[in-house]
Amino acid sequence: MILRSETTHRLVLGVLGVGLFLAIWQVIGSYRLAGMTWPPLTDVLMFIADPARQTLFVRAMLASFASVAIGYFVGILSGVAAAMLGQVLPMMRPGLDRLIAFIHAVPLVALAPVFMVLANRDLTPPAISALGVFYMIYVATTSGLKAASHTHRDLFTALGSSPVKRFRRLELPAALPALVSGMKLAIPVAFIGTIVGEWFGASRGLGLLMVSAMQNFQIPLLWSAVLIVTTASLVLFGLMSLVERLVYGRFQ
Q1: Quick one: which of 220, 214, 234 has its CA closest to 53?
Q2: Burial of 240 (0-12, 13-18, 19+ CB in 10 A)
Q3: Euclidean distance between CA atoms 184 and 247, whole angstroms
Q4: C or N terminus of the chain, fewer CB within 10 Å?
Q5: 233: which residues sit within 8 A by CB, 6+ positions away?
Q6: The pTM is what?
Q7: How far apart are the C-alpha atoms of 29 and 37, rounded to whole Å?
Q8: What is the pLDDT of residue 221?
Q9: pLDDT tens track for 231-246
């Protein structure tokens, strides 16, 4: 009963926060408090709903969301694999940590031109997205794999379990809550990586729309692309929060 009350309270606060943000957006745009570059929310929604622009938005959304999906899942798989490698072979952990920290220290904006040279320009958005997700998942999984207590590890060892069996039966389930939290936080990272990659010359996508809109001072188009990306990221973030609650309830 208390849990339901807390959930309802958080849901109401979340709805109020989003509503307040949208109201402030509308007021600033309506009264031109930020100049001509901040349109009212209603104008942006009308721009998106215009049937003449549906094809443009749908094509850009398909390209960007496909890059986000590819980058997200590739980043998760590679991040989990790297963390598992460091767990099964502890001697490799320091080297992996330093190498991944070094790669992460390089700004994505600086890496995008390198990917443009090394790969096809349409592969740059998912590659940049996967790189950001990879770091987030590696850190979360590595941290989660340490959640199993020494007592449980000693018990598995005393019962004759192999390292692989101990990993599969004890350490991996213990790491799931942290892994799911990392997957939730990686969703905005995947979107940011895709948009950054598209800025550097992709042939299609919402990031390309943003660049084109800025260069041609098409303010409603710019804000429409931003609103679509933000809404999609928040919706997926909210859905993953529900999954996170289920996993925490089962494994923690």
Answers
A1: 220
A2: middle
A3: 12
A4: N
A5: 187, 188, 191
A6: 0.86
A7: 9
A8: 92
A9: 999 999 989 988 988 8
Token duo for residue 4: 């339901």
Over pLDDT 90: what percentage of the chain?
A: 42
Q: CB under 8 Å to 251, separation ≥6 — which residues?
A: 173, 174, 176, 177
Q: Which amino acid is at 127?
A: A
**Distance between CA atoms of residues 88 and 78, nearest Å:** 15
The alpha carbon torsion through 51, 52, 56, 57 (nearest 10 deg) reads: -30
If you average pLDDT over residues 117-138, what whole number do you get? 88
Whole-Å CA distances, 129 to 4, 132, 180, 185: 36, 5, 18, 13
pLDDT of residue 2: 54
Tokens of 41: 């929310």
Tens digit of each residue's pLDDT (9 = 90 or more) over 23-76:
999 999 898 888 888 899 999 999 999 998 889 999 999 999 999 999 999 999
Contacts of 241 (CB under 8 A, 6+ apart): 184
Contacts of 201 by beta carbon, 8 Å cutoff, 6+ apart: 116, 121, 124
Task: Retrieve residue 225's tokens.
Answer: 């692309």
Cα 204 to Cα 190: distance, rounded to the nearest angstrom: 17
Give, as one character, the DSSP assignment of residue 129: H
